[in-house]
Every structure is written in structure tokens, then in C-alpha cells.
Amino acid sequence: MGTATLAHEGAMGIVKERMDGMKAIGAAVKSIAPMMTGKADFDVSLAEEAAAKIIEHSGQNMIDRFPEGSLDQPSEASPLIWEDPEGFATIALELETLAGTISDETLDADARASLFQKIGATCKSCHQGYRVRR
Predict the structure, then answer these.
(1) Which of 19, 77, 83, 130 has the lowest tally of Cβ within 10 angstroms?
(2) What is the pTM for the complete model shown?
């Protein structure tokens, strides 16, 4: 059993929904990594699919999955989410915006790599600021 599976064990309700959403975002990002970093040809269908999945679980949809006080175990949410809701919302909305450009066929390889780095940095900033490792 992988660590993501173990982390989700026992999760219920909104905590499970958001954990599943984060897992879906991670899988979508992983699926496009080769083409966004120039290691595979650009596939617009795959890019659109990944973008749709990230958009589905980011932005306001992500914000809505963190209602006040939803820290039930095994949640990895930091209380900072509710102490700094504007900062958290900014990151969630930024991820949605960035995902909206993934399938842009006019981007060259350098622009795709830069976009992918921005997506990774956005995820990392959220994990560092708003996630508690147990």
C-alpha cells in the first residue's frame, strides 16, 4: 500500500473529498510532466484532460472543500488555511488560472516548461504553507 493510500485511510466526508481532489491534481500533473518538460511530444488531448482535472479540483472548488474547522483526522490541512483565507484562496485560484493555459497549442517548449514550473511552484507553496505533515 502506497503512502498516499495510507494517508487517506479512514478519511471521510469533506476531508476525503479534498484528499481525493489533491490526489487527482497530482495524477494530472504527473501525466503531463513528460510533454511539459520536452521529454514527449505535446498531446493536446492529454493536456486538455489534465487541465480539466486540475481545474475541477482547484480554484473555488478547492476553497469550498475547506470549510471552517474541517480538521478531522487524517486531514493534513493546517489551521493557517482559516487564519489566512485570502492567501490560501490566492493559491487555489492561481492554480486554476495556470491550469487553464496547459492545453494552449501556441506555447513553445520553453513556455510549456515555464508554465509547468509555475504549476509546481504553486503546489509547493500551498503544501509548505497550508499543509501539516504528520
Answers:
(1) 83
(2) 0.90
DSSP, residue by residue, 98-117: HHTTTT-TT--HHHHHHHHH
Query: Would you state the cell numbers that stand for residue 40, as one nine-digit string?
Result: 514527449
Angstrom distance (rounded) from CA 12 to CA 47: 31
- pLDDT, tens only, 64-97: 999 998 988 899 999 999 999 999 999 999 999 9
Give me the pLDDT at residue 73, please.
82
Distance CA 12, CA 97 (A): 29
Q: How far apart are CA 17 and CA 110, in angstroms?
A: 35
As to burial, measured by CB atoms within 10 angstroms (0-12 exposed, 13-18 middle, 19+ buried), residue 65 is: buried
Residue 85 CB contacts under 8 Å (≥ 6 apart), including other chains? none
d(CA 134, CA 131): 10
Convert the pLDDT of each residue in 19-28 to its tens digit.
999 999 999 9
